[in-house]
Amino acid sequence: MNLKNIPSKEIMPGYHGKMVHSDTMTWAFWDVEKDAEVPEHHHVHEQIMHVLEGSFEFTLGGNTKVYVPGDVVIIPSNVPHSGKALTECKLMDVFSPAREEYR
């Protein structure tokens, strides 16, 4: 499998993702447009976010920080979170269990 052969899906406005799924995990590679926002939400999935490029403002459990390349955020199950791309960004997320709605 090669990422260049996986079609990109716009999951929400400004968030274009390529998804890799196993039985128990989803690995998401995002190209995020500047100023694109993900509203506050929560889900049963554990999530790990890694910033590859750009600056991403992220709020986790009411605490807001700006994350830059190399930063990693662990998002526990059912903790409210939201984000906004301050620049164009490349992000990588891992979800467990798999995000069936992203298949």
- Percentage of residues in DSSP E strands: over 45%
CATH architecture of one domain: Sandwich
| Arithmetic mean pLDDT | 97
CATH homologous superfamily identity of one domain: Jelly Rolls
Radius of gyration: 13 Å
Shape: globular
* Straight-line N-to-C gap: 16 Å
Query: Structural class, judged by helices and strands?
Result: mainly beta
Describe this structure in words.
Helix content is 0%, strand content 56%. The chain has strands at 9-12, 15-21, 26-32, 37-41, 46-53, 56-60, 63-67, 72-75, 81-85, 89-96. The strands form two sheets. The protein has a six-stranded antiparallel β-sheet, with no helix packed on it. It starts with 8 loop residues before the first strand and ends in a 7-residue tail after the last strand. 24% of the residues are buried.
What topology emerges from the helices and strands here?
Blueprint: E1 9-12, E2 15-21, E3 26-32, E4 37-41, E5 46-53, E6 56-60, E7 63-67, E8 72-75, E9 81-85, E10 89-96
Antiparallel strand pairs: 1-2, 2-3, 3-10, 4-9, 5-8, 5-10, 6-7, 6-9
